[in-house]
Every structure is written in structure tokens, then in C-alpha cells.
Amino acid sequence: MAKIFIDGSAGTTGLRIRERLASRRDLEIATLPDELRKDPAARAGAIDSADVAFLCLPDAAAVEAVSLVPGTSATIIDTSTAHRTAPGWTYGMPELPGMRRRIRESRRIANPGCHASGFILLVAPLVEAGIVPRSSALCAFSLTGYTGGGKKMIAEYEDAAGRPPLLDSPRQYGLTQFHKHLPEMVKYSGLDLAPAFCPVVADFPSGMEVTVPLFARDISGTAGDIAAAYRAAYPAGGVVTFAGDESEGGFLAASALAGSDAMRITIHGNAERIILAARYDNLGKGASGAAIQNMNIALGLPECEGLLL
């Protein structure tokens, strides 16, 4: 029976991972008493004795946690931004070519960012197929539920008495175009340039919708070629699936996959302008679900074991 430790189990991602694993009979979940949760020696011992340790911590704390166990044989899955483009770490996106094998063999796995997951899985197969040039200057829009902002943002949105009225409308952020997910979005999509990225948080708990618009004149191929690339990259039965032009009567609801660990990719538009969309849960395939998927692969278990698809 594999032993699992979650460092940062009180945070949003850590709590969701713990909930997902609670019913698993093939895993032992190790915990620390509340008074030792921040004790470096106790944390180091728990990580070192685990088969898989999840780091559900802020970036600096995740770096510190890794430094506590330099020689550990535990597989570490870091859900922070700290190691996603770092040497010696495997990017935990098994849908990318060759990445599933690397995850299986790695002891240092960096879980992808929520916004980055949709963008990369929309764009990477098209760059690989030569449909979207590597030199493309793309735009991306990402609509997310407020749970992606962590406990502080959740408290702000769910404070019935003191909630600011501006939270009633969608709010765009990342206005400086230095969003922390951009480095991984560039590296793993295969692009040479970072996209103009427009994330928006809105008044719903969970769900995410990443949209990438394309002009047909700027790509090498058609919407049919894009669909063929997606079908080849994401066969039926996996966590990520291609769903054609699926919508809800001409609408795309960002909360459509709330509570799920799956991602559904769709294509919309016309002969001149094409819209690529990825919908999933920001805490599912965007965080905790992806971490569990990576854990399953690392332990040699069925990839979708325990996931809600």
C-alpha cells in the first residue's frame, strides 16, 4: 500500500486532494498533528517516509520543503509555480508527447497551472502538427471561478455581509501581462512568444474556460485539420477529450465541468475566424485532479483511478 503525505493539506488544493483520496483503499494517508504541521523536522520526516508527497504550498514554502529532503527517494508532486520550468523537474502533463513515460520515471513532478493547462492542451498539438506556427503571436482568455484564488479570495466572495459590490461582476486581472503561468505556457505549448493573456475571475465557485481565437489566414490548415489533430492527441476514454463543437445552445458555460477532473476541448467559429475552447474545473484538471492523475502514473496505477470523469 502506497503511503501519501500532503504538505499543506489545509489549503484549497490540499483539501481537495485529501477529499479525493479519502475513499481510496489502495493508499495510506499520513498526517501530522496540528502542532507539527509547520515544524521543519516533522515535515521532512513525513515527506521522506512517503512514497508520494504532495506540496500544496506557496512558491517559497515549496522550495523550502524540497530543501528539507535533498536525498529523499519519495516522489514529490509540487502544485505551486516554483518548479514548473525548473531543471530536473518533470512537467506533470501526461497528454503531451513522451511526458507520461517521463512522469512514470520521475521523482520530481511539477503540477501544471490551472490557466496554463487549458492553453497548452489547446495549442501544443497544433504547433506539433504545423498548423499553428511557432512564431505565432496568440491571444488567450481564461474565465475562472473564485476558488482558484485560494482561501482569501474564497472568503471575500462568500462574505455575505461585508462583500464589496465590485465582486458582483467579472474582474479581469494579470493586467501587467506578467502572469505567473506565462513561462510554462510558452515552454510547453511550443511557441516562441508569450500570448497576450487575459484572465478573468467571476462570481461562481468552480470551473474554468480557456479560449484561444485564431484567424484562418494565420494558420496552415482548416478547422477540420485542427479537429483531426485533437482527435489524434486526445483519444476517447482519457482525462482530456475532444468534443467537436459542443455547446449549450450556442453558449459555453465555464462551470460546465465543475466538480469533475476531466477536460473537454471544442472548436467553434467559421471559415475566417476560429475559436478553440477548453473547459474544466480549476480545482480538477486545473489542480488537484491533475495532481492525482500524476500520482497514479508515478505509482504505476491506472491513470484515472479515483478521478471523477
Produce the secondary structure layout.
Layout: E1 2-7, H1 12-21, E2 27-30, H2 40-48, E3 52-55, H3 59-68, E4 75-78, E5 90-91, H4 99-105, E6 108-110, H5 114-128, E7 139-145, H6 150-157, E8 171-172, H7 182-189, E9 196-202, E10 208-215, H8 223-233, E11 240-242, E12 263-269, E13 273-280, H9 284-298
Parallel strand pairs: 1-2, 1-3, 3-4, 4-6, 5-6, 7-9, 11-12
Antiparallel strand pairs: 7-10, 8-9, 10-13, 12-13
Helix pairs in contact: 1-9, 5-7
Count of spatially separate domains? 2
Low-confidence stretches: none
Please report which band the strand proportion falls in: under 5%, 5-15%, 15-25%, 25-35%, 35-45% or over 45%.
15-25%
Cα-to-Cα separation, first versus last residue: 24 Å
Mean pLDDT: 95
Please, how many helices? 9
Give a quick account of the main beta sheet: strands, pairing sense, barrel closure.
Answer: 7 strands, mixed
What is the radius of gyration computed over CA atoms, rounded to a whole number of angstroms?
19 Å
**Total strand segments:** 13
Query: Architecture of the largest domain, according to CATH?
Result: 2-Layer Sandwich
Strand line-up of the largest beta sheet: 8-9-7-10-13-12-11
The level 1 CATH classification of the largest domain is Alpha Beta
CATH topology of the largest domain: Dihydrodipicolinate Reductase, domain 2
What sequence of helices (H) and strands (E) makes up the elements?
EHEHEHEEHEHEHEHEEHEEEH
Structural class computed from helices and strand pairing: alpha/beta
**Shape field:** globular
Q: Work out the helicity level.
A: 25-40%
Task: Specify the CATH homologous superfamily of the largest domain.
Answer: Dihydrodipicolinate Reductase, domain 2
